[in-house]
Design goal:
5 helices, 39% helix, globular, 5-stranded mixed beta sheet, alpha/beta, single chain
Length: 152
């Protein structure tokens, strides 16, 4: 089992405010921009993909997985998660409104597999979405980060 932490607490934001789905993507991605994991062009790529393809990133009730094709705007595989203080509509008939936004960025089609595997394990856990929605303290955030990193 890998012991390296692939997800860090600085990439988890709790109860942030967003005025639109575009703003939610941008604010959720902000920690990745701040540390150089992605450029702002990646946000533009995500927004354009949604405008072209529709709200395909809204995977489950209240959950959006923001992503775009690998590009030069991504400098390393990385992920950020944000919970919103008020849900926003992405235009998904069945899964709006969204209050959890995950930003997932990959440099190519293979380098991000372990990180994606850990996220899938976390989100498949019965109480993961409820834990994220209820999280409001540093301890809550660290518990979530630990769960993602251990693949439990």
């Amino acid at each position: 089992m890998m012991t390296r932490n692939l997800f860090e607490a600085r990439y988890l934001q709790l109860k942030i405010h967003a005025s639109s789905w575009q703003d939610a993507l941008a604010k959720a991605a902000d920690p990745l921009i701040q540390d150089g994991g992605i450029d702002t062009a990646y946000i533009d790529d995500m927004v354009e993909a949604i405008k072209k393809l529709g709200p395909y990133i809204v995977l489950a009730p209240g959950l959006a997985l923001g992503h775009a094709r690998p590009s030069a705007a991504v400098h390393r595989p990385c992920v950020a998660i944000a919970t919103l203080d008020e849900p926003v509509a992405f235009g998904s008939e069945h899964n709006d409104p969204v209050d959890i936004v995950v930003i997932f960025a990959a440099v190519d089609d293979d380098a991000h597999i372990e990180l994606l595997r850990r996220l899938v394990i976390f989100f498949n856990a019965p109480d993961s979405l409820n834990s994220l929605r209820a999280a409001c303290t540093t301890k809550d955030a660290l518990d979530i980060v630990c769960a993602i990193n251990t693949g439990e």
